[in-house]
Amino acid sequence: MNYFFARFRVSLTCAVAGLALLGGCASTGNPRDPLEPINRGIYTFNDGFDTTLLKPAAEIYRGVLPQFVRTGVHNVFSNINDVIVALNNLLQAKFVNAVSDVGRIVVNTTVGLLGVFDVATELGLEKHDEDFGQTLGYWGIGDGPYIVLPILGPSSLRDSVGVFVDFKTDPLTYVDPTRDRNILWGVRAVNRRSELLDASKILETAALDPYEFVRDAYLQRRRSLVYDGSPPKEQDEDVDIKMKPRSERRDSPFPDPTGGSILISGEAPTPAQLEALEQAARAAQQPQPAAREPAAAERGAAAPQSQKARIVRFWAPVAR
Questions:
Q1: pTM of the predicted model, to two decimals?
Q2: Of the N and C termini of the chain, which has fewer Cβ atoms inside 10 Å?
Q3: How do the domains of the chain map onto residue ranges?
């Protein structure tokens, strides 16, 4: 065991040194993203992988299975993820939340038929969102440089370590045989991607630079999660997210059924959140009275920024 931790510390030190060296060579002036040229290349690869393989699979999955089946699949994987959440609440000394998470697992696994039905939420046991990256941040470890991981998407040096630990504590990691484990990972990835189909189109419509939009939204949201929704004010906290002018946006909030693919790590939104998002999109399609055009224009400019929290959570097919 001591040998394992010694090797882990050496590997982490080498990774930090390597990133610092690469950052010095590739920095574009953004202190949060010193590896931007490399990250953009990986982002392009991820986007191509999503557009070519994952998104078509998600569209077929969404078209074939009815909503109640997809909700059951989402609940099953959410119940499995509660094991990671409970462990990290315990590591953060949030004992009340950890007990609540264990209660969720017990109730949903038994009464909820292996998690197909989210009975725990109906009983008042709140769903939490914790991972090892947040645990490291909770104990004062900085996020480090922004990193885009192949396939897994946006991350940071701290959260990359968290992904590795979450992978080791994920119950799916220990499913045997390997074929069954890979099938479960694939279903989880496709299910999460299907829940983000509409959100990815909003990203394509609203963001002038999707890479910067995803990066800034990811960093803001991770900081909010570490501080449980109440992060302290920082001097550089106000981020200028570049949005497309209204004249450059397409008429429909869902303009291109084949475009707008994204790869963003984290949990998918709930079906209720997706329904609210679709209702907002339908409302945006309705014509507005001429006298209220200035107010509508203001809403059109502000809405994409408020929607970034909805689209920033996506899948990590292996680790989460």
A1: 0.69
A2: N
A3: 52-284+296-311
